[in-house]
Amino acid sequence: MTFSIAGFCADTGMLGCAISSSSICVASRCAFVKSATGVALTQNITNPNLGPLALSLLAEGQSLSRVMASLAVADSDVQWRQLGVLNNRGEGATFSGAQALGLHATAEGKNCIALGNLLANTGVPAAMVNHFENSTGHLAERLLQALEAGLAAGGELGPVHSAGLLLCAEPEWPVVDLRVDWHDEPIHQLRALWQNYQPQMAAYITRALDPANAESYGVPGDE
Fold first, then answer.
1. 23 vs 29, 97, 116, 211, CA distance in Å?
2. What per-residue confidence (pLDDT) applies to 223?
3. How far is 127 from 193, CA to CA, in rounded Å?
4. 223 belongs to a structural domain
5. What φ, ψ does residue 84 adopt, rounded to 5°?
6. In terms of residue numbers, what domain contains 97?
7. For residue range 13-43, what is the model confidence (pLDDT) as tens digits?
8. CATH code of the domain covering residue 140
9. Edge to edge, what strands does the sheet with 92-96 contain?
10. Percent of the chain with pLDDT over 70
11. What is the CA angle 129-131-135, rounded to 5?
């Protein structure tokens, strides 16, 4: 039903994730990122409450093992979930419950984790981790490339219809929050969105932090 990757950039401190699914609006329910805290992925038969809870526990300084144990206590149906948590040091943990759907797998690598269910093959998460570990550049680009590598490795058994790219840096709000909620080629469409957004990203940060020096908006009425 879903495959995803979370990553940390040791050079910038950025945290983020990329995700795709056959279900509509996957990023709204399954992907959670908090600046300087971590990334939480909650998928399979999803309980979105577990994402914010995982981030709160990380913010309290709990270890990954404690976070995972706390999530299991909080959700009596945890065996239907697939979970991933990545902290702000690039350390990760994953979990697939006994009721996870179809072929499912997870992979943990340097500064990244990946997970998926209803997969075409169990090598998909490892393919995403391998690509991320061997990539360079902006974290959003690395995550998107890793998601594309997961699709190329087989992806979900059936067609995917939604995808998302979520990234936090120093601001509390996400500096990248791009979603394709329903499309025949959502990952391809997500790539197009990123290519349009990337040249504008820094300007939006400047508008928030230093509006007096913000560049022109380039719209009618802006003089």
1. 10, 19, 13, 39
2. 63
3. 23
4. no
5. -140, 135
6. 2-213
7. 999 999 999 999 999 999 999 999 999 999 9
8. 3.60.20.10
9. 31-34, 38-44, 81-87, 92-96
10. 100
11. 120
pLDDT exceeds cutoff 90 at 45: yes
Per-residue pLDDT at 54 exceeds 80: yes
Contact 141, 154 (CB under 8 A): no
Q: For residue 74, what are its two tokens?
A: 């909080």
Contact 200, 208 (CB under 8 A): no
Q: How many domains does the chain have?
A: 1
Q: Distance of alpha carbon 184 from its chain centroid, rounded? A: 20
**Full-prediction pTM beyond 0.70?**
yes
Pick from 122, 92, 82: nearest CA to 7: 92
Nearest to 178 by CA among 217, 135, 147: 147
162-168, strands of its sheet edge to edge = 105-109, 112-117, 2-8, 15-21, 162-168, 176-180
Within-domain flag for 96: yes
Tell me whether residue 106 is in a domain: yes
Residue in the structure block whose two tokens are 């939006």: 204
From first CA to last CA, the distance across the chain in angstroms is: 48
Query: Which range, of 3-7, 37-41, 209-213, averages the lowest pLDDT?
Result: 209-213
- Kindly state whether residue 222 falls inside one of the protein's structural domains: no
